[in-house]
Amino acid sequence: APEKPLHFIQQIIRKDIESGQVQQVVTRFPPEPNGYLHIGHAKSICLNFGMAEEFGGVCHLRFDDTNPEKENEEYVNAIKADVQWLGFEWGGPVRYTSDYFQNLYDWALHLIREGKAYVCDLSPDQAREYRGTLTEPGRNSPYRDRSVEENLERFEKMRRGEFAEGECVLRARIDMAAPNMNLRDPIIYRIKKAHHHHTGDTWSIYPSYDFAHGQSDALEGITHSICTLEFEDHRPLYDWFIENLPVPARPRQYEFARLNVNYTITSKRKLKQLVDEGHVDGWDDPRMPTISGMRRRGYPPEALRNFCTAIGVTRSDSVVDVGMLEYAVRDHLDKNAPRAMCVLHPLKVTLTNYPSDRIEEMRAPGHPNRDDFSERVLPFTHTLYIEQDDFREEANKKYKRLVLGKRVRLRNAYVIEADEAIKNDEGEVIEVRARIIEDTLGKDPQDGVKPKGVIHWVSATHHLNCEVRLYDRLFSDPSPDSGGKDFLQAINPDSLKILESCKAEISLAGAKVGNHFQFERSGYFCLDSKYSTIDKPVFNRTIELRDTWAK
Ligand code: ATP
Ligand code: MG
Ligand code: MG
């Protein structure tokens, strides 16, 4: 395959290394622990950790925890698990922006002493009015020219919790007429009397994202601080803080386009709403675009990484077809998932010419072209199950399954011929009586009447009872998130189907969470980590064999 051309971030890093401006690449992935990670974060993880790997550097995991009310330890732990599951290792300890609160506070004092920050008592509404608009310059706050002493004293009072929330803020003193609104004396500290999951009740003031982010990067020696395009307008502010503070290093911010996927929501706030309102079964519901949801669904981490490589890194916003993600999942599973048979809608077949006390052990390959997978043993017995769909009393030539008076091959076993359909009072077929055709293991029938098709089956006496969960897209609208629409209205009511009495081949009794299987003719499946019990495993359908979604 031809080498993929370098994307713009790779080009920047390569140039920085070649020019000697950067010795060791240090990147960071900076999630806020206010929810679970989603497919968009996977792109950021693959990029940040990927660049460190590729250029022999390190990537830090830093929790950007400056909003105590929304953050907690559950999210911290889930995020760590997701990054590791994706196959990445962070350099050094897990870091927290809150580890730098003292340092950031000292730097706020530095700005005040330099006349570059002031305590402002405007109410939020007043501040908005003073801020101006895109076409009108803002006006200076009446508190802008407070003396250094007064600012130091008031900021100290803010720190000690002597003001109420919202009573005042600390602002950088930059330029109220700047065309870039982010430079119009932005807030750098606000009062929050909230308990923080990491620093407890130590602080009653918290730094803003803009004041915390670049300085944390500098403290950690981050060389390339990669974020999404929304932050492009914040870059002048990022640079202003770095230039006006005695920071130990000079990090630089680069922006790339965030990942959007059709039929998918990538907003933590909305995903949280789906969880909180019970539209889904938690953050790790297999229909969720969260990393934990995709893991539970059976998406392999390699497939997510391959997807992130395939979509590339650019500076132009676009929407990626969810089919590309599904392609990556299918492609990986086809090559790596062992095969198995499982009957989802069982129909009993009695083989009238096969002794009821006989068991033959049929052999089947673990994978059609991988000899590193062990062979499966399939007990063949007097009664079997096949899919209800695989039998008809009558059918035209296109139907290549079992029909009364006709033959079909049972995969990895005999050819059989159907003689009689037994029905219940409602006229539904509840059993098929059939015969095996002798001497057809791996051979065509000697009478020359060949079966038209091959169907899967399991022994009705030697199998594993299981539940199977079939998933479809959570949203039936290609852009559930756009144009002021209510995304809840776009929820697909048929996105989960539960089949309670499925019959799987007994080799699946050894299935473990994290294993993947192709159930022949049905799709790719994995053991559900939440609802499986020893007595009754539950298998999630990860994805169908082919793309069957109506385009
Ligand atoms: P959300 O908007 O879903 O709440 P966020 O940006 O607030 O996401 P963070 O926890 O701050 O969430 O994100 C951590 C990192 O992941 C950031 O660097 C952010 O830019 C990146 N990121 C978040 N969403 C996407 C996305 N859709 N595509 C690419 N990167 C993303
Ligand atoms: Mg964020
Ligand atoms: Mg956000």
From TrEMBL:
Domain tRNA synthetases class I (E and Q) anti-codon binding: 454-528
EC class (word): ligase
Database matches in Gene3D superfamilies: Glutamyl-trna Synthetase, Domain 2 (1.10.1160.10), Glutamyl-tRNA Synthetase, Domain 3 (3.90.800.10), HUPs (3.40.50.620), Ribosomal Protein L25, Chain P (2.40.240.10)
GO biological process, one term: glutaminyl-tRNA aminoacylation
Subcellular location: Cytoplasm
Catalyzed reactions per annotation: tRNA(Gln) + L-glutamine + ATP = L-glutaminyl-tRNA(Gln) + AMP + diphosphate
Binding site for ATP: E32, P33, N34, H38, I39, G40, H41, A42, K43, S44, T228, R258, L259
Subunit organization: Monomer.
PANTHER family the record matches: GLUTAMATE--TRNA LIGASE, GLUTAMINE-TRNA LIGASE
HAMAP family cross-referenced by the UniProt entry: Gln_tRNA_synth (MF_00126)
UniProt-recorded name of the protein: Glutamine--tRNA ligase
